[in-house]
Write a structure and sequence with these properties.
The complex is a heterodimer. By secondary structure, chain A is an alpha+beta fold. Chain A is built from 4 helices and 7 strands. Chain A has one domain (2-147). In chain A, helix 1 runs antiparallel to helix 2. Chain A starts with a helix and ends in a 15-residue tail after the last strand. The model of chain A is unreliable at 1-19 (pLDDT under 50). Classes of the chains: A alpha+beta, B mainly beta. Chains A and B meet through helix 3, helix 4, strand 6 and strand 7 of A and helix 3 of B.
Chain lengths: 149, 402
Amino acid sequence: MKAILGVALLVLLSFPALASLGGTADSIEADSALMKGAIAVRRLASYSVHEIQGDAGTVVREYVSPGGTVFAVAWRGPFAPNFQQIFGSYFEQYSAAVKQQKASYVGRRPLHLQLPGLVVDRSGRMRAELGRAYIPQQVPAGVQVEALW
Amino acid sequence: MLAVISAGALVACGGGSSSSTTTSPPGDNVQAIAVNGGPVAGVNYEDAAFTSVTLCVPNTSSCQTVDGVLVDTGSVGLRILGSALSSLSLPQLAGSGGTDYYNCVNFVDGSYLWGEVAQADVEMAGEKASSASIQVIENPAFTIPTACSNGGLNEDNQSALGANGILGVGSYPQDCGPACATSTSPDYYFTCASSGSCQGATIPVTQQLINPVIGFTKDNNGVIIALQSVDGEAATATGNMIFGIGTESNNALGSATVYTLDSDGFFTTNFNSQSLTASFIDSGSNSYDFPDSSIPVCGSNTIAPGFYCPTSTLNLSAQTVGANGAQGTVGFSVDNAVDDFTNFGGVAALANLAGSNASDKCGPGISCGFDWGLPFFFGRNIFVSIDGQSVPSGVAAPWWAY
């Protein structure tokens, strides 16, 4: 147990040098370590998909452009992923925007954030949720965002 | 019966008149609920059902009744603002090494709730869940772990929450379940020392926040949410939460169609030539939310950002499909939300409130969903059975029926 905590701590300490969204494919290794999950890679014509199966049942997919940049992440499963980890250097922008949006109304509904350099969608309910975030400017030509997942 | 009468007094606080009254089926398993704008002065929490819950220090007569608690079939567990429990001191659930357990919930809208796990006898109508783990929502003196906040907004106060608490009576017996007994990855449970040092913690299933319904000694396999019908809009709407399915004379399944959930907890909605495979029913969502790029979305500078703003009311239909193949057609209408909010400012029940979920980019291969929020509950009896509990239909829970 201590060894596992130690590994997780090292990963957190190394953040954000190993950021995910907007980072390089290497950063996916850090996400995988945090989720204690195995990675499976699928290579498609215009991007590759690195899928991490987390130990609590949530699956995270990271989409890597031919240039090696993570241009989108998506998730599905019983629990939300750690956004600080998978959003990487985009986490602060996400956090500021989502706080502002949520503070503007009382109530509950799915999330759609449309920022100049970041789009985030979240839907579902407790024990069953899904979502996706992408950098519009980094999406490779010819890739349909709606096909991601 | 007493509880039904006292809870019925809640209805009065919405103001205005509602068009009809709901007949309360007799029984000690019937809890009055009301779509009344919620308990916060100056806040009209549209399309949300509220009730009152009595909490007691376990095995004592030291109790307090909290009103204005949101009825949420989309979450699990009772979460009460610490500020609403002023006259009650509940025992906390201790972790190892002089720590206490804390619970965290992260909602998809980007809000979160943090607070100590406490134990209480939870009473509604004539039902009682003894020594149930609940969350007492509080902003601690120390910093909440980032793994909990996850970048979101802390709704630890009445004005942000719009309620005095949330009663999660969804499809599962606990908020986290077996995953949290062996893994800290869900980020639902933490242990914190009094110094404020917190770390992710595993917790046995039996100590987790439970769906209060499974803690009842009877009528513990699910709930029925029954709200009166609303034609367009109403100042308030009333109804009942009936505990148990097929356990009493007043909660028979009858001719309702049973729609099972798939292994991910969703069912499918066929709408507008799209197969929305991540669909769900959720009284805690305040609108119908679904992808339709043909309906204009209200602008971000309006009073209804993200909701739909058609030029005139749309009458639409969709087909709901269970994992068991059961199918049914649902008709619904979509108003211009800016017009609704402008013309019906103090109105709590808006039957035609709808918005976009979440992206309009929905195509083959992507998981998209239809969120059947509270407007779907008007004029229906919605059955929510709980995973793992014995149910009468011959179809294993969890499922929804209507």
